Amino acid sequence: MRKVNELNNSLAITASILNEGICLVTCINLYYFIEVSDGVLKLKSMSVIFVALSLLLLYTSKGQDIVNEGENLRMMLWNCSWVAKPVWFKKSLLIMMTVAEKQLIVKPFGLYNLNLQNYSKVLNSAFSFYNLLKSFKKS
Length: 139
Known about the structure:
The protein is an all-alpha fold.
């Protein structure tokens, strides 16, 4: 729990800038990829999109791994055989279960969860901003 809190504090600015920057870069390069007819520019914009989304997938999957490990810990504590154990073990298990009840989530600035759902939200935002750019072009 302490390590996840430290991670939340130390990654807050970096994760937020990466999240918003990747959304913006994906939006702009998606616009170039779809709207511009130059083949070289299309190839460049597609490679930038690929690198940006790979980076986003890398750090959101690590956030998802932390969530999954917290769930695995809760399940291991729940399935622990405690019936024939001494009282000190039962008390320790109860304390661990109480602490493990709080879900481990990397949540920069408390605004969003850094997991695979964040990946899909950034993609949805990039496509929404692309549609906004496209609508300005038609006007």
